[in-house]
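Subject: Sanity check before I submit

Could someone independently write out the structure tokens for this chain? I want to compare against mine line by line before I put it in a report. The sequence has 468 residues.
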Amino acid sequence: MARERFFLELDPPEATLKALPHVVIVGGGFAGLKACHALIGKPVRVTLIDKRNFNLFQPLLYQVASGLVSQGDVASPLRQMVGQAPNVQVLLGEVQGIDATAKEVVFNERRYRYDHLILAAGSGSSYFGHEEWRALAPPMKILEHADEIRRRVLSALEEAEQTPDPAKRLFLQSVVVVGGGPTGCELAGSLNELMRHSLERDFKQLDPKQCKVTLVDPGDRVLRAMDPAISKAAQNYFDKAGVQLLLGGRVQQITEGQLVVTTADGNHTLEAATICWTAGVRASHLGKVLGDATGCPVDKGGRVIVEPDFSIQGHPEIRVIGDLCSYSHTADGKPLPGMAGPAVQMGGWVAADIVANLQGEPHKSFSWFDFGSMAVLGPLHAVADFRGLRVSGAVGWLLWGLAHLAFMPANENRISLLSKWLWAIATRERASMLITGHPNQHLDVDVGLVPVEAPAPEPTQASATIAG
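---
Independent answer below. Compare away.
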């Protein structure tokens, strides 16, 4: 017998908002949060739905994984950020279905009415058809992933401290990071710094020179999205810091503590107690849900192909932004990258466009401004490419720090991050070196990549037309 479904009827935060257009935003990441901020005080009623009650600053997850900062430094409660605005309501839940005809979303086994829908559900990790690797090589997308990586690294070092076998000790002091993009480079550099200097100061039986961090990437250089000069600078830094690079390598197999990587020279077997995965990205399952509900095209990465105003064909009231959308209406025809900068600009523009349309006013076309890209590789060392201005070293690190503090949405987090960064520079001590949780706890967290069996939308009953 089918489970009964019902409309979620919630009173607006204020009675005066009842007659206003209802904008539902799904996802409280960079894009969704920016859209929500931009709609505060506008003549609309806003509902922000997220499966977690906080905004996560993903670019700094690697610092949680390496113990440089704690969870609370990179996450901020959504209710404190936007929930106190008179025209904004925050609801906790995961959207599982969309009824585009009735203009309703299905979440928490309820149906919720919208006039305008903004989907900003983000992305997760892809293992290119080898989902069995997830338990062996945690990705870097949510807090539980970062906690798991830190737990594995620190637990391995604690075991190595008590191990008389030199070969096993070397294995326990080894880390492999798969993926040479910004996240992979930042994670490899930070873990290398953690292991070498923590061992030197805190562990009595271990030799820091025996630490081994290997970065694997299928390309001919790391940071392939950046200028080759930036890649060369990063490679030079890694060579000096002791991070080993295995370029042109494709992972063929991952087993407990072991990878098999194929290069032009043949197969290489790498052994390490900790393996991390930063190589693949796939959009949230909501892309497929929307495609099934409306027939809109979805690319091979699960991203929704959108119109110039981020709507989908035949449904101007539905906008898709952030990592969930494939936006190719650019000067060179290339899709916008899945980064914080484009996501924030998308969110702000879509919010302004909705308001302009409601008020019958013209609105300029979306135009993305590329601020550039950057990656921090170690203490006081980063590489950055700002629209042709290429810098590395301490200057790059300073610009990287200022940019990340500027993008950080909460002032409290800015202050805590700055203080911990300065403390780490002065003392080389890390703020969060705790081993917590239990093995593979991240596997119990649904990151939205597995398609959810959503019940078929039921016809809207004439007697149940009250908007949520």
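---
OP: Matches mine. For the report I'm noting this point. Residues 1-7, 447-468 have pLDDT under 50 and may be disordered.
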